[in-house]
Amino acid sequence: MTTDTRTGDPRVLWEPGAWSASRLGRLASGLGDFASYEEFRVWTLEHLDAWWLAVWRECGLPVTAGSAEPSVALADASLPGAVWFPGVTTNYAQAMLALPGRADDDVVVVSHSQSREEVSWTSLALRADVARVRAGLVSLGVGRGDRVAAYAPNIGETLVFLLAAASLGAVFCSVAPEFGTQSVVDRLGQLEPSVLLAVDGYRYGDKPVSRAAEVSEVLAAVPSVRAVVHLPYLDAASSGPQGAVPWSELGSADAELEFEPVPFDHPLYVLFSSGTTGLPKPIVHGHGGIMLGHASAIGLFTDLGPTDRFSWFSTTGWMMWNYLVSGLLVGSTVVLFDGNPAWPSLMSQWELVASAGLTYYGTSAPFLMTCRKEGLTPAADVDLARLRGLGSTGAPLPAEGFAWVDEAVRPAGGRLQIGSLSGGTDVCNGFVGATPLTPVWEGEISARLPGIAVEAFVEPAPGSGQWRAAVGEVGELVITAPMPSMPVGFWGDDDGSRYRAAYFEDIPGVWRHGDWVRITERGSLVITGRSDATLNRGGVRLGTAEFYRVVEELPEVKDSLVVHLESDAGDAGELVLLVSLTDVGTALAADELRSLVAGRLRSRLSPRHVPDTLHVVRALPRTLSGKKLEVPVKKILRGADPADVASAGALDDPRALAELAALADPEAHAPLG
What is the C-alpha to C-alpha distance for residues 530 and 560, in angstroms, rounded to an integer? Predict the structure, then answer.
């Protein structure tokens, strides 16, 4: 990391302009005379009702026919149990299809795919398709409160299906087609949908993947499905399961576009946790919370609007797909992509950024770090002149990743804001990230976002029982006041007990998210890892993110994962580092690799960071959205059956967990010198 020699602060990579230059700045200036971003942020927390009411009006969010315009945003600030916008009825699909600032013939959705040619929708075509599919769903008996599901990729038809369901007040969920049968059943079995949209397969790079057998198995295991809508995607001539309704017939009849009036907290869709342990949590998100949360995040905090072209690499099994498509709320053109982001090379995504004329592109931190490791220089190889913002999420982006983006992606002489974002499926949004009003410091998330009460809570001293908010110290990332996109609840959790236990059990009245975070004196943040995967060496807590930053910088290491196995005897326990290797790494002898890794950790971090053992594995387990499985791996190393700690169908490499089981044998452990 490069630091300012005068202050010791990290290097500033992007400076905000005048407040009048951004929509957020203009809104803030209309609410008060604030001397700084921090003063403005604190004001929003002290006036949550006024702030979110102002955001609703600024974003032009609709109420349905017969509903009064909102005069109160937050009627009850209990946590959990907040009451938002009482008496107001609205509809997410109505807000999405308003498409502010766009004409009927403007292209608003572009669907890129490795399985077929590009497909686009204008404003007029999108509204017409939603109206037709809506009518098709009505003909299948779908109405308010019914559940519909999509086993379909990140393409325009999946978005149309979501909007058609939302317009009816039906409850939607999507499962990415790369999910295996059991993972699909684990999700849909809880929701019991009556209609399933399914593709016949897809192409991942140059590899065709049929899903015909999986669809049949899912239908046999989820008897609630009474109608299948078949979308031929891999093979245009495929007809799907017997009795399936072709997609072309579902939306064949012209119809009027209508919107069911629903309350703010009426279920819009269900997102599922990764499902690495037990059944995935079915997290219910409401129409109003998603509308308000996404419109503010995309339109105000990211400053996108009708002139922007917005994309974020995601599958339909990750919340970033739901976030991406909400770009329509602010009139942006959303650019969808389905396929292998590294085929035929890592440059393919940057070529898409250039050819699609993206102004904002989001991806995962691991993807950016892989590009850096491969020595890519996208700005030198393709035209990125229109790109003004780059988002990163899924894992902490280390300082080296920030520096690489600034050096290799930022157009020569241009400005590129790096928006490192953290949030989660639980809130289907970010709660810390970049804003138009705050600098970007190398290696740090820019700010706590307006109206979202994020703190770092330090554990209470023995006997005190009092948690305290801290600056400059690592603590639990918590949210101390309601935010609009907190879940309505969990599906089937009628008394709310599972929901309360998931977030509010440890610190009553406070949402505990499960990350370690440090808030700096500048107001920026550094997330150091999951708090449920704590590493504790001699009473000192170590974050996993710093291990990964150092180890994965080595050209010999492809991926890494570190866990701490506590000792029943009360000693220091065992710190275990797992690595998969690049071709360069496989050429090293075992002793050379151990010495290299130990030396780098000792010199870059501290002797306390040197693990006790090192294991080389073929591949490390990650979820389909790229998250490392630290807790399941820890359980396996303690002797748990891999089948009991994670669902293979939820992993990018189903074999990876099972291959770790042999390492539970203490004799397999190799000391790290």
Answer: 15
